[in-house]
Design brief:
This protein is α/β, with parallel strands linked by helices and about 290 residues long. The chain is built from 9 helices and 11 strands. The chain folds into 3 domains: about 80 residues, Orthogonal Bundle (Arc Repressor Mutant, subunit A); about 100 residues, D-Maltodextrin-Binding Protein, domain 2 (3-Layer(aba) Sandwich); about 100 residues, Periplasmic binding protein-like II (D-Maltodextrin-Binding Protein, domain 2). It starts with 6 loop residues before the first helix and ends in an 8-residue tail after the last helix.
């Protein structure tokens, strides 16, 4: 029979992975440093693999430790979700939530399923629009909560993830070798569009705007069909895409932040949905892409 993994062991391990320090972890979990060491050792015994590499005062995860951290976070989240579903007061209400369709396609199915399980009496209306539009809608009170691509002039956003923008092409085509580079860009006003244009200046390749759309599916379709390259977030990669690296002559356009913004309205339903989204974005791993 397979052994059972204790959630307390997993929580201690996850905190140690974040802090990299046994003393700080002991303070976080309210145990002695030796107790933390024993918990980690017990977890290593259960899985039969070393999870922490100790070199002097430095503690880092082994490759097996990295794999265990992913499992640990998911198991901790599911445990907390189950306990919360039975112990917290039942929340009711109505939340008007906005997000660009790029993020909606990637995270909404999982987030809304989890949120519905723990908050079955909350109605959520979802509106997919450009980040700039949703900033105005939150300010005017037409949305209660929105997940947006942050820009420097957007104040009061809760940053929930920093993400890389990458150049991508079709894994089955070589459109990136075209003498005049065909490019698919998002709509005017989108932060990714400007980052992509700035990146094209760095590359110094002749290019033409082949496709422009506010719809992520249209951009993705153009890339997968081998009609253009595009700059998209790493988490939005799709099977059939290939990342264009510096070796190909395409340095990444840069990093950007994803954040949550709220209207002046506040209630338990809005707070709960915001927590679900922030947690999901923290745990999100890049989508699988073709080699």
């Amino acid at each position: 029979m397979l052994p059972n993994l204790d959630v307390d062991l997993l929580k201690t391990f996850a905190i140690l992975a974040e802090t990299g320090n046994f003393t700080r972890t002991a303070e976080e979990v309210g145990r002695t440093q030796s107790a933390v060491s024993m918990q980690v050792k017990r977890l290593e015994e259960l899985v039969g693999k070393p999870l922490i590499a100790r070199v002097g005062r430095t503690n880092s995860l082994t490759s097996d430790g990295q794999m265990m951290l992913d499992y640990a976070r998911r198991m901790i989240h599911l445990n907390d979700e189950a306990i919360t579903a039975f112990t917290k007061p039942e929340i009711t209400g109505h939340v008007r939530f906005g997000t660009p369709d790029d993020y909606a396609d990637r995270i909404l199915p999982d987030v809304m399923a989890r949120f519905a399980r723990t908050n079955p009496k909350v109605q959520v209306d979802v509106d997919c629009r450009a980040s700039r539009t949703m900033v105005d809608m939150v300010t005017s009170g037409d949305l209660d909560l929105a997940m947006i691509t942050c820009e420097s002039d957007i104040a009061n956003a809760q940053i929930i993830r920093s993400e890389r923008l990458l150049w991508v092409t079709s894994a089955r085509h070589s459109v990136h070798r075209s003498e005049i580079l065909p490019v698919a860009l998002s709509q005017f006003g989108c932060a990714w569009r400007q980052m992509a244009l700035d990146g094209l200046e760095v590359i110094g390749r002749p290019y033409r705007l082949a496709y422009s759309s506010s719809n992520s599916v249209a951009i993705t379709s153009a890339v997968l069909a081998g009609l253009a390259i595009a700059a998209i977030p790493e988490i939005c990669m799709r099977p059939g895409m290939r990342v264009l690296s510096e070796t190909d002559g395409f340095p990444p356009p840069g990093m950007f932040d994803i954040g949550l913004i709220r209207s002046s309205k506040s209630n338990a339903a809005i707070d709960s949905l915001a927590c679900h989204i922030a947690d999901a974005m923290c745990q999100l791993t890049p989508a699988v892409a073709a080699e």
